[in-house]
Amino acid sequence: MTDGSAAATSRQLLRVDDLRVEFDTDYGKVCALDGVSLAVEEGRTLGIVGESGCGKSITARSIMRLLPQNASITGGSIHYSAPDTAPVDVTALKPNGATIRQLRGNAFAMIFQEPMTSLSPVYTVGAQIMEAILLHTDLNRREARERAIEMLDRVNIPAPEKRVDAYPHQLSGGMRQRVMIAMALSCSPRLLIADEPTTALDVTIEAQILDLLQQMQAAENASLIIITHDLGVVAETADHVAVMYVGRVVESGTVQDVLGDPQHPYTRALLHSVPRIGAKARLSPVGGTVPSLLEMPRGCKFAPRCSVAKSICHSSEPPSFALAGGRSVKCWLHDQGGGTGR
Ligand SMILES: Nc1ncnc2c1ncn2[C@@H]1O[C@H](COP(=O)(O)OP(=O)(O)OP(=O)(O)O)[C@@H](O)[C@H]1O
Ligand SMILES: [Mg+2]
Q1: Hey, whose CA ends up nearest to atom 28 of ligand 1?
Q2: According to a count of CB atoms within 10 Å of the terminal CB, is the N or C end of the chain lower?
Q3: What single string gives the DSSP state of each residue in 4-22?
Q4: Which of 334, 267, 342 is closest to 305 using CA atoms?
Q5: Predicted pLDDT of residue 341
Q6: What tens digit of pLDDT does each residue of 191-222 get?
Q7: DSSP annotation of 281
Q8: How many angstroms is it from 163 CA to the middle of ligand 1?
Q9: Measured between alpha carbons, how far is 40 from 285 in angstroms, rounded to an integer?
Q10: Does residue 342 sit within a domain?
Q11: pLDDT confidence of 339, banded at 50, 70, 90?
Q12: Whose alpha carbon is nearest atom 3 of ligand 1?
């Protein structure tokens, strides 16, 4: 967490409302995101957390408009509002048109989940960082190379003037991840999306990379979306959190509220599966498995795994109920009968 004032809201930079994404598959259409809503404030960090297959990467790729070929956005909106320009609905842009290409790099940048597939093996890391700089700034090749070296230095790569000419396979996993960060930050984006930036790294390197992301964010007053399945990473880095379960945000709010006093049974189950130093209680993994998109339960999608589900939970999907402090929770246990749901 950057400071204790996360509850005091600042300006929203990005707002996702009721986003729906469908895939065309051999078995017909499946809905990967169904009504995802979230917001990212200026200079703040949003953590998106959830088990594998819950739609975290698809949410990020929707914002970047870099969805797989067989995916389409079939509902909702993604509003990006920079302070100096009119808000843009990213979902209304042409998939590879000039506006979205301009936004990618200048306004949004993403660190992808798989650094080896995002870095080309046949170009040096310097050439790849320079490509982004040349595309999005007025710098010439010599200046772009200098900027690439400066970025490698800023992400603490030793001997950057030599490493700029290295190929990705000549670098360690941690260094490749730093190159990805250097590339993403080379054009000073306002929003950086880091999709599982530390999953493949050991804990010491993980801590260094998370530190680096936070330092860079603070230096540029950028906003950060950090995608992870690790609640520890959220606790350490984020101001707000959105907990996802099969294409839905089931709980959201400040990290203090959501992790300190979780209201959704899924969030509670995730928290109980995290080891804590000094805790005597046994760890309990979340029972059952995430349902397939092809065979979704009728009511609440978590109901078959939920230990406190009522009969309504199996027959009807709950709306998101608004709680105090800007929190929301998609669970029938919070239905006060007063129509607070949305
Ligand atoms: N090209 C595709 N065609 C069909 N379904 C897909 C495609 N890509 C992803 N999916 C499905 O969309 C859902 C969401 O995937 P996504 O990659 O967003 O999950 P995730 O939360 O990022 O998981 P992980 O933690 O494993 O990275 C999953 O059920 C996945 O199987
Ligand atoms: Mg993913």
Answers
A1: 53
A2: C
A3: TTTTS---EEEEEEEEEEE
A4: 267
A5: 43
A6: 999 999 887 677 777 888 888 888 888 888 89
A7: S
A8: 34
A9: 30
A10: no
A11: very low
A12: 23
Cα–Cα distance between 46 and 38 in angstroms, integer?
9
Answer with the one of 186, 204, 224 that is the final residue of a domain: 186
- End-of-domain residue from the set 139, 165, 186: 186
Most confident range, picked from 3-7, 199-203, 273-277: 199-203
- 174 and 102 within one domain: no
**% of the chain at pLDDT higher than 70:** 91
- Supply the range of the domain harboring residue 81: 8-107+189-293
Give nearest CA residue, ligand 1 atom 1: 68
Residue nearest to atom 8 of ligand 1 (CA): 68
Total of domains in the chain = 2
Q: Which ligand is nearest to the CA of 56?
A: 1
Nearest ligand to residue 33 Cα: 1
Tell me the C-alpha to C-alpha distance, in Å, between residue 81 and each of 16, 38, 108, 125. 11, 14, 12, 32
Which region among 6-10, 48-52, 170-174, 244-248 has the lowest average model confidence (pLDDT)?
Answer: 6-10
**Closest-approaching ligand to the CA atom of 291:** 1
Give the ligand at the shortest distance from the Cα of 59.
1
Mean pLDDT of the chain: 88
Q: Whose CA is nearest to atom 12 of ligand 1?
A: 32
What is the pLDDT, as a whole number, of residue 254? 97
Ligand 1 centroid–CA 289 distance in Å is 15
- Enumerate residues lining ligand 1, CB below 6 A: 23, 25, 32, 50, 52-58, 68, 70, 113, 229, 293
What percent of the chain has pLDDT above 90?
Answer: 62
| Residue 290 dihedral angles phi and psi, to the nearest 5° | -65, 130
CA 279–ligand 2 middle distance (angstroms): 30
For the chain, helix (H) and strand (E) counts, in that order, are 12, 12
